[in-house]
């Protein structure tokens, strides 16, 4: 998958993209992340990409000319792929949304800066707007890296474990079960016996129950959307029948 990043801070990306899983994915041609400096597409000697807002107010606004020139020079006119603006005004990034974008062959990501971008960029070249949460950062670079990471690990071959992404929290609609590794005993705390039993059916059942228990305790709202079996619902009622009085009613409709 090719991802084209448009930013005023191109140096932010290399340290993360050149490390660990994403670096291996790029080396194996599973992802191709290309970072484009918007300032390189300006025509003035000072490479100005911002100006004061019409109507007054604090802060600066990203100018439309260099952004349009950058996007159209690299992607064509109109752009040959989706253009995502990272912004707190966008749709909140979810695992399901990440799956949708991971299915694309190419994607462009625009990182905003300053007080915001000229609205004509949003109206006439951006095709989607995505937020990583209900808070505001100083720019779109960190959200872009998060977006790239979330998408990349869903691509076939990026993770060493082919089932790794499907076991993650949120991928199944539940929070992930706990993990343990050696040593068997650390400061008197033992690894659960079931994980050492070799009984894969029992291990699978234990992990499912742990996911259910953690989700009920930490994110009960997720249970209203999760695909639960009768066994799941019975287990949830057995550990805390009062945790969600509408749970069984929701899953019977």
Describe this protein's structure:
With 253 residues, this protein is an alpha/beta fold. The chain has two domains: 2-152, SPOUT methyltransferase, trefoil knot domain (Alpha/beta knot, 3-Layer(aba) Sandwich), CATH 3.40.1280; 185-252, Trp Operon Repressor, Chain A (Orthogonal Bundle). Helices cover 37% and strands 17% of the residues. It is built from eleven helices and ten strands. It has helices at 14-17, 20-27, 64-75, 95-102, 119-124, 141-152, 164-167, 200-218, 220-223, 230-239, 247-252; strands at 2-7, 32-37, 50-51, 61-62, 82-92, 106-111, 116-117, 128-131, 185-186, 189-190. Strands 2-1-6-5-8 form a five-stranded parallel β-sheet. A three-stranded mixed β-sheet has the order 3-4-7. Helix 4 packs across helix 6 and helix 8 (200-218) packs across helix 10 (230-239). It is elongated, with a radius of gyration of 23 Å.
Question: How would you summarize the topology of this molecule?
Answer:
Layout: E1 2-7, H1 14-17, H2 20-27, E2 32-37, E3 50-51, E4 61-62, H3 64-75, E5 82-92, H4 95-102, E6 106-111, E7 116-117, H5 119-124, E8 128-131, H6 141-152, H7 164-167, E9 185-186, E10 189-190, H8 200-218, H9 220-223, H10 230-239, H11 247-252
Parallel strand pairs: 1-2, 1-6, 4-7, 5-6, 5-8
Antiparallel strand pairs: 3-4, 9-10
Helix pairs in contact: 4-6, 8-10
Q: Classify the oligomer.
A: single chain
CATH topology of the largest domain: Alpha/beta knot
Radius of gyration: 23 Å
The CATH superfamily of the largest domain turns out to be SPOUT methyltransferase, trefoil knot domain
Number of strands: 10
Q: Please report the distance between the alpha carbons of the first and last residues.
A: 39 Å
Write the element-wise H/E pattern from the N-terminal end onward. EHHEEEHEHEEHEHHEEHHHH
CATH A-level architecture of the largest domain: 3-Layer(aba) Sandwich
**Derived structural class:** alpha/beta
What topology, given as strand order, has the largest sheet?
Answer: 2-1-6-5-8
Please indicate the percent range of residues in DSSP E strands (runs of 2 or more): 15-25%
User: Averaging pLDDT over every residue, what do you get?
Assistant: 92
Task: Kindly state the percentage of residues in helix.
Answer: 25-40%
CATH class of the largest domain: Alpha Beta
- The number of helical runs is 11
Question: Uncertain spans, ≥5 residues at pLDDT below 50?
Answer: none
Work out the count of structural domains: 2
Major sheet: 5 strands, parallel
